Amino acid sequence: xxxxxxxxxxxxxxxxxxxxxxxxxxxxxxxxxxxxxxxxxxxxxxxxxxxxxxxxxxxxxxxxxxxxxxxxxxxxxxxxxxxxxxxxxxxxxxxxxxxxxxxxxxxxxxxxxxxxxxxxxxxxxxxxxxxxxxxxxxxxxxxxxxxxxxxxxxxxxxxxxxxxxxxxxxxxxxxxxxxxxxxxxxxxxxxxxxxxxxxxxxxxxxxxxxxxxxxxxxxxxxxxxxxxxxxxxxxxxxxxxxxxxxxxxxxxxxxxxxxxxxxxxxxxxxxxxxxxxxxxxxxxxxxxxxxxxxxxxxxxxxxxxxxxxxxxxxxxx
Amino acid sequence: xxxxxxxxxxxxxxxxxxxxxxxxxxxxxxxxxxxxxxxxxxxxxxxxxxxxxxxxxxxxxxxxxxxxxxxxxxxxxxxxxxxxxxxxxxxxxxxxxxxxxxxxxxxxxxxxxxxxxxxxxxxxxxxxxxxxxxxxxxxxxxxxxxxxxxxxxxxxxxxxxxxxxxxxxxxxxxxxxxxxxxxxxxxxxxxxxxxxxxxxxxxxxxxxxxxxxxxxxxxxxxxxxxxxxxxxxxxxxxxxxxxxxxxxxxxxxxxxxxxxxxxxxxxxxxxxxxxxxxxxxxxxxxxxxxxxxxxxxxxxxxxxxxxxxxxxxxxxxxxxxxxxxxxxxxxxxxxxxxxxxxxxxxxx
Lengths: 317, 348
Prior knowledge:
The complex is a heterodimer.
Chain A: E1 7-18, E2 26-37, E3 41-45, H1 52-59, E4 67-72, E5 75-76, H2 83-92, E6 93-96, H3 110-120, H4 127-140, H5 157-169, E7 175-179, H6 187-204, E8 207-212, H7 215-221, E9 224-229, E10 232-238, H8 239-244, H9 249-256, H10 263-268, E11 287-293, E12 296-301, H11 305-316
Parallel strand pairs in A: 3-8, 3-9, 6-7, 7-8
Antiparallel strand pairs in A: 1-2, 1-4, 4-5, 9-10, 10-12, 11-12
Helix pairs in contact in A: 3-4, 3-5, 4-5, 5-6
Chain B: E1 4-17, E2 20-33, E3 37-41, H1 48-56, E4 63-72, E5 75-76, H2 82-88, E6 93-96, H3 110-121, H4 126-139, H5 145-148, H6 158-170, E7 176-180, H7 188-205, E8 208-213, H8 216-222, E9 225-230, E10 233-239, H9 240-245, H10 250-257, H11 295-299, E11 305-308, E12 311-313, H12 329-347
Helix pairs in contact in B: 3-4, 3-6, 4-6, 6-7
Family (chain B): Belongs to the ABC transporter superfamily.
Subcellular location (chain B): Cell membrane
Pfam families (chain B): ABC_tran, oligo_HPY
């Protein structure tokens, strides 16, 4: 990413702990920092339990962050308190959820689901305007406007996810968090939804945080990627670079485990085994994000920087 | 000649629902050779799970086998009583289910769960059964098995639980193992471990595997042969190389084309959705989503056309009178690879 692009979101030393102070304290997100630029798609990958979903939920304030700052358009949104502030902020930021079966209220009609944001923010002056907006939204996401008076159970998984996308778009947000939006869908439908998200981004200049465990899909949709493990961000960089030349050992092992639809490749595949002790904190050598080469960050201690620099150099050669 | 261990012929299964008869399996035939892994690929609702449930005799109450046979050692499994099936299930034909979180009994020690099939089928006493349970736990890679045998399922992680499910399935050394999306609920790194384990155990135990999945990447790594299902039918089958490098059916093209490879820059989605099996289309079921569909596709169901001794595809495009079409770029690339691979083998 070039330096002159505007930062839309800055996450600074975000910590999200659960059961703080109790024996079962969980450090779901442990001091992570990253920026998302306007108009880009930032992919967050990791295995289950890595904290990627928690990160997304903390950003949109479904949890109150334990510590750290979330700066959206220059304003710290981690400390919002009044309903008025929240309304203003949530108009800018929306979310698409993983499970299209659980995220739509089965007792509401599609038009009411999609228009919920419109109602809350009083974006429509009349009933007629409201239904016009809804119908336009449904057409935007590739559904038929006649669908608006149906109920969720009348739709397939892919169609439901389109409804979820229409609902997110209803308030004209700048930023959308998509939390595993395709993992509940069939392969042939996944591509449809991903392509829709890409088209919408182009048309409306949206910025995405795309959270997923499917690395090949994340690589396909994202401009930049962050790799999470055990609540920490281990590596950040442009999608193609991170995939082709991972710097951190964990990233390399994760990529080596992705099955590829190519039998020849699979026969030759060697999975890289990762030793998680590499991530252990060593008080003598504190680890933090270091910029190894411009645009590529790795979480490491000062001593390890040369090692990663050498790796990055080798990748460029 | 390879020995056929399982032979499914002209299987048709309907489900009775309030809306009508859902024709879930529509004339499906395939066989499983001894020692091989056959992958059945398809989207949800394509009938891959129903097919294997019928082999296990685990169909839901509202399912009706309309016709067909499932021959296992020349006996038709569909004609067996529930009691007879209980003697086959878990002993000769075993199954691994998708979700390791729900396929174990939370109130039973895992040692007991692994030993159960041995006590039931091999009539071992408890001590001997637990002894063997311990051995198989070591075989599937559970560390500290002596201690862990007394643990309950919730004390294990997802990947370990799936190892236990595999241990239960393999403890009687079944001839046939049916794995229904065994790694879908797991993370990629754990998935890779479990797949390696299955391959390793297959060679040790000499079992034949039917592997059901929607993930073509997993298929590429696991399968010897592949059957592609769509709307309750097998539409193409062949060796793994034939399906991945020389696919002939437009649906197989679409599937391969809609998966991102680590190098792909553009995804081609298959438009539309699968047909409603309450009222299946009379021609090629894929016709409505097929950019290469011809007039005949809407009218008449294509028969299987032979591509090679092992490779068949049900598409009118293979009819001698069909026009030549150019498949998507990604498929052309794969075809070229296939030609290159074949030339090399001929030279050698």
